[in-house]
């Protein structure tokens, strides 16, 4: 029997965005690859804010005790990690009696350390965790379009505040050593293309066929506008642009309602858009958002700033609208579609087929496979 290549995906935590993306790929490539997953949160470092008490002598005593505890844990089959102090004394790191890594086909733990490919889904995982697996080829991901990129800013392994690095320094420190870089939408691809040819746009939307279509967009007098995500992230513009713009439209006497979802089970998104007429995106930088993909799969068109996936899919005036990132621009665009329902319906008819022509999972999974071959 020919052994299939083994891929380890490193994601932040179970059933969050990165996990759903790799679950999408795994379903499409399982005939050719064996896929496994581990979670960065299981291997997080603990910063030692005051490490002076950890003299060389104390560190060795602490670690000797940890070795004994680890050996005992293996004998009695305990799962909890044992922490060791790093030589730098800047942080401690977990070691498990049995490593936390799971087969993606059945979610069963496996005894494996070596893989053909290791895919870190976020650039900050390697400096925020001590992950004990070895890959013959290693990939690194970036899915936040702003720079400095969103994520933990302090690299305690190397004692670097990465926000002080320019983009070339950041690339050299955190990306250059990898076999391939995978990125989301927006300007990420072009931003790093000048440093390397080993860069690939990738994407995947889990449960693509499960989203319920709204085939009655714009039919009712009331216009329902949808939004999902983290409302407190300023770069999303929810509180400082979207909400004020919708309030202003309501003040004109037009019947507009905002429908939101900030948390919950992923499966709840499948029918979230079934009565939504329009979504709005006001991000300053975004490699997605998944909101756009989910809505497009539900026949729901979008008004958006020029970011991420909308920049890839939207044809202005044909299947959606672009706006400047300010309250007035969004307000004017909403009023235009409220008053011109035929235009809104045209967008609805076009957006799903246009999205799938470019972003169907069966297409985008090949971009990931190309990244493996670098």
From TrEMBL:
Q: What is the superkingdom listed in this entry's lineage?
A: Bacteria
Q: Which residues form the Glycosyl transferase family domain?
A: 258-353
Q: Which Pfam families match?
A: Glycos_transf_1
- One Gene Ontology term of the molecular function aspect: glycosyltransferase activity
Kindly indicate where the leader peptide sits in this chain: none
Q: What is this protein called?
A: Glycosyl transferase family 1 domain-containing protein
